[in-house]
Fold:
Amino acid sequence: MSAKDRTTLLFDRMIIGRALIDSFKKLNPSHQLKNPVLFVVLVVSVLTTGLLVQALAGHGEINTGFILAVTTWLWFTLLFANFSEAIAEGRGKAQAASLRRNRKDTMAKRVKVPEYGSEYTLVASKDLLKGNVVLAEAGDMIPMDGEVIEGIASVNESAITGESAPVIRESGGDRSSVTGGTTVLSDWLLIRITSNPGETFLDRMIAMVEGAKRKKTPNEIALSILLAALTIVFLLATVTLLPFSIYSVISSGHGSPVSVTVLAALLVCLIPTTIGGLLPAIGIAGMDRMIQANVIATSGRAVEASGDIDTLLLDKTGTITLGNRQAVAFVPAAGYTEEYLADVAQFASLSDETPEGRSIVVLAKTKYNIRERHVNELAAKFIPFTAETRMSGVDLGDGKIIRKGAVEAIEKYVKGAKSVFPDEMKDAASRIAKSGGTPLAVSENARVIGIIHLKDIVKGGIKERFAELRRMGIRTVMITGDNPMTAASIAAEAGVDDYLAEATPEAKLKLIREKQKEGHLVAMTGDGTNDAPALAQADVAVAMNTGTQAAKEAGNMVDLDSNPTKLIEVVRIGKQLLITRGSLTTFSIANDISKYFAIIPAAFVGIYPALGRLNIMHLATPESAVLSAVIFNAVIIIMLIPFALKGVPYKSVSASRLLRDNILIYGVGGIISPFIGIKLIDMMLVALRLVK
Amino acid sequence: MNLNGIVQSVIFLGILILSAKPLGIYMARVFEGRISANRWCGSVERLIYRFSGIDPDEEMHWTTYAFAMLAFNFLGLVVVYLLQRFQSILPLNPMHLPAVSPDSAFNTAISFATNTNWQGYAGEATMSYLTQMLGLAVQNFVSAATGIAVLVALVRGFVRRETRGIGNFWLDLVRSTIYILLPLSIFLSALLVSQGVVQTFKGYRVVQLVEPIKGSDGNKISTQTLAVGPVASQVAIKQLGTNGGGFFNVNSAHPFENPTPLSNLLEVLAILIISGALCYTFGYMVKDRRQGWALLIAMLLIFVPCLYMCMQIEQAGNPVFTSLGIDQTASTLQPGGNMEGKDARFGIANSVIWATATTAASNGSVNAMHDSFMPLGGLVPMWLIQLGEVIFGGVGSGLYGMIAFVILAVFIAGLMVGRTPEYLGKKIEAYEMKMATITILIPPAVVLLGTAVAVAYPAAKASILNPGVHGFSEVLYAFSSAGNNNGSAFAGLNANTPFYNIALGLAMFFARYWLAIPILAIAGSLAKKRIIPSSAGTLPTHTPLFICFLAAIVLMVGALTFFPALALGPIAEHLMVPSH
Structure:
């Protein structure tokens, strides 16, 4: 199942059904209390319901039909807000459940003694506890997340990553981590379970999506404070209208004080119900988008922090470069042709299955059309690479002895055979090294015949990607184990802002600390156990799913695809989440202007008829004006749910451009659109003869 | 609006803007201690510290700073209260004025300690020279210095990194007073005396009327008592320190307080000059002068349209008079427009410039009666107050109030650029939001609740001299003025009653200290934070776009909070005036 398949339709029928029920369940005051804006709506709705009961009993403050209409729409406001939260939860759960579904109902082979071949008992995967050891053989599904303690096997992880090529998992080292729901294809593994049921990364993520356990993120808390303050301001502005209007009635001698029903309507229209209602949905949807990108975040805070990241530490290999060095040129020694060198080099590399070796064969073929010869046809003896000689090669049947290896290794080798390493070849080698490449010397019968230029190949389009990041204000730092010369050259080619050469895990940690001390927020990816300290230190740390358990525990996100470039996507999702919050807040507040122009003249035209001139929308009657504003206020929540769930459109442009665009769309748009909306609703109410 | 209005306002605004940079730099140097480093200047300062046992090197945590500020202000409050209560037995009381009533003394003590200078009393008939000089004038200095000190502490919060201290209250207080307020006041007093503002310790003068008149009882009146006193020295600081409490009851409409057009220009400039220059000081101290200009421009962006709107309305005159055939056009013989409650010396232009300046800043001195402005003309000063006194505002307090709005603006705008919000490299988090919203929330709460009680409580309603929609505006104005530490009055309201003295006293108290304390808390919290270097992803806070956004936020909060109340006051009144 690929990531694409997992993106749920925006409005799946099942999810809507559940969400509808949940909208009512969420009316529970203890739930609404978490959101001050909605709690006020609840209290006000209960109040107007009381007024309705009073009216039905024949003691209504104003006409019963109007109170009924206002009350109904106030309840709808609340239900719509709850619905937005419920549907976001539903989608999040559906996505997480589809990840989790794979591991349901597996029977695991739990061993008593952690040794291969010892006795096992079959237990349900859900009953496995942290520390249990299970055996997984070819064809078995790995029951839970865990760490390989013994064995080596190929594992199909497509259920999680969508990548069909099997991967190797073995004990020790950086490939010892296995994920529940993946399948062992060959051999066997002894796995120690690393989490109790309900505590896996996925479980943690699901918990964050679910209402009960969800904690507000720091920015959500700060925004809630702002919304609560606005609510208090509007509460004061509306409640004091009662004494103000009583005074005005007495002093003007006509009209009647504003009714509690109208005040209730005014209050709910003014307080930021739109953003207040959609706030939880926006947060949950941010997590959803992470899951869609195949990233499991272990805290909402991390998702938020990713929008703030201004420094990305990227591993060179696999992220910036294709991962392996490739041959790009042959430099022959005096007396040899390039083609001859290519021919010999290809011989030397025929059985060299390393990517570098393959690339030499490919280069010789593409550049000089030297056919790949079949190894078995030649009566050749291949000499494999050893750490001691640091060379590999071939002894051909015709007596030719070909070697290739590091320049120093070949130099030592030819000197041993009383030959010399030509100076011009040494120069060529150091030129290649200076340009960031790796020179490989080739000798034939202990005579140097040339040098192969190996080079890190920078991924296509990565430079543009970094330029885009720079426009967003994000600096990229390349991390590599290469020497500074090589690192500098690749850094220049890839267009990164900075690099850390000869990087050790300690140097990485130190770099992060320094950057943080300067005030930067740092994101990084990592997979090895020795990455763990740096991962723990970074503000946003994405651990590769293929990485070790230690790395996953230290990070605050796990990338199921184990794709280091994902960091860029993560930053994007974080930014989009914050922008959605800000834009809808602006929209919500901007809406209030029109509501005043609808409700204030309607409420006070009886006292001061001159105030009727403020009815610039020419709404039909005071009642239709109030009702139109209330209906608009409720309906807008439903209309904005897609924005909350998908996030507002986001382009990677500078902050100034973003601000300008968003102020125009959500600020100015937020002022104008409700004037149109309220007028349309009013016309509709009149057309349907719902108001007198 | 006519040519005179434009010329007068351009001169005023021009001098105001031009003075921002030199005065701003000078003040920044004062706060950074560079003036005291001078051996000659610093000697007085050091003497004060030695005499009062202050350790000038002590760095205060924000709570200590706040405590020092509160303790000092409370002490001042008590002194002013006692001076009023015992003025009859104290010296420098040539007119033998009796002790002030407890509720009025309470109100006045809070009023002057909080830099409000709401005056429920008539100065010349109530306060002895000693009370005026030792009580009120001293508070005019130190309440202004307190506002500046709190601002400077906040600025340090932005500048400093990962530290607990936000400066030393005593140092900031002393330096603001002796290097900024005192020299400027002495200079301005001298200029005012040159224009004819009186300055004497002698008692009130009885002078012969040129033409005797008949009193209401039929007796011939041939003499008049002219109130005098140490006026010039008091007027200078009441303007410069955005205090506004007049020596005389009619404040700067009185010819002995404000005799000539030149004295008028000097006094109205003095209202805004420090607050305006402090914006520059802010930019200077945070080492990004664009930030200071940005705040000043945002203020002007609201101030200038308000000024011209008010001027336009007042110059257009009263449509009721027009329909009666009364000539209200400006000519060489008359200023034209709505001249009710305005002094012929100042005309429409200078009355309106003053009215908007004194309400934009939390000054509250007047040279015309705001009560007599046209309904919308009066709405402008009232609304400027209701915006929270952040358009220039009080010295120090205006800018720190504005910075609370900036925090609000960067919070929303920051999210819209996809970052958790930050300002000047400091992250704005839940704690700062909480404190900033308190400062923004308190004044409207005080104003609305106070007004609600006043129009519902029978004893309070009795004070309303003009029942009806205008009476409502007067009450709303009174609480807006006290709840934002402005101090000007709409008049038409008998506010020297126990209810108003106590209610307005409490309003002034909350509005001052429940803003200053959260601001200091923000300063303390910011000082502890790291500074995040800016990048292309950082929200720029000096661009025209952000300046407009900030101004819009201030206007939106002010409009959304007060629109319903204003609709029942000036807006209803305006719509009820028969149109042209």
Q: What stands out?
A: Chain B has a mean pLDDT of 93. Chain B has one domain: 3-576. Chain B has 19 helices and four strands.
